[in-house]
Batch of 3 targets.
Target 1
Amino acid sequence: MLEYKPEIIIDLERERKEILNAFKGLLRALKNRTREDTSMIRRAFDMALEAHKDMRRKSGEPYIYHPIAVAKLC
């Protein structure tokens, strides 16, 4: 017997805004950063965003939230 999996409708524009807000939250958490730090963090974010662009968690949320959360902890 096949398991029924409901279709998840994704609002890509809303997701994009939420991801950018998560990134801004990361920057706010780093209070004593230099311009060079900010530039390096942005490059790392862009790389992670590209690397995980098609990845999703089982819940359906974009995987990129995980690397952002880990960066906040570090």
Target 2
Amino acid sequence: MRIYLVQHALALDEAQDPKRGVSTQGREDVVRTAGFLSLFEKPKPVHVFHSGKLRAQQTAEMFAEAWHLKNDIMQADDLSPNANPEVWAAKLNAMKDDVLIVGHLPHLPRLVSLLLCGDTDTKPVRFQNAGVVCLEKDDDGYQVVFNINPTMFYEGG
């Protein structure tokens, strides 16, 4: 089972958009990241979840479109920035199908830390807006498969 964890794309400032939708730069970053990844891997998560915040929902929709996913994109509880990562660790442990989760800091790094290291404070990977951290679950636990982020596509990244 593969788990694609995505920090939402760069959002507009609250003064520009109180709902904090995805910015033009955020859209470009998702196109680059999702497009690059689709050249080498054909991600086909069975489930697509987001936190319910507009920027996470829009990011999930953009990844689904770029990867030609026909899945329902669902809002899920316990993906907010300060949610307890143990809730999603338990959900993922019970799943067998590939999944795409779009969320926020500090929840995503704490979840990955829990899955990989058994605690929430280790920070084994770095998340960035519109980046993808892919984990694979097997009988031995979780391993990092890759970490791709949009800074790879910019000079000096």
Target 3
Amino acid sequence: MLIVNTPEVPGRRISSSLGLVKGSTVRSKHFGKDIMALLRTLVGGEVKEYTEMLEDARVEAMARMVEEAEGLGANAIVNIRFATSQTMSTAAELLVYGTAVILEE
């Protein structure tokens, strides 16, 4: 599955647009990781516990989007975008969406 964040694929023609596809997940870290993240905010720097959580969420959300696109018969997803939102004080949703298309061979 070809996935791009542009509306077109250079050098390829879109023969059919199949519509919006999406994938999402809501994630939180367990209590021990939350405490470590809180302590890390006191001294500054990257909060690695949450960086890892969001990377895992991106991978899972992308896989769900690809699965939905494959179900429609797509061989590519164009114009993908990511969005995040806080659902609770300790949880975040990550959403990825784009347009499922069929590229000519």
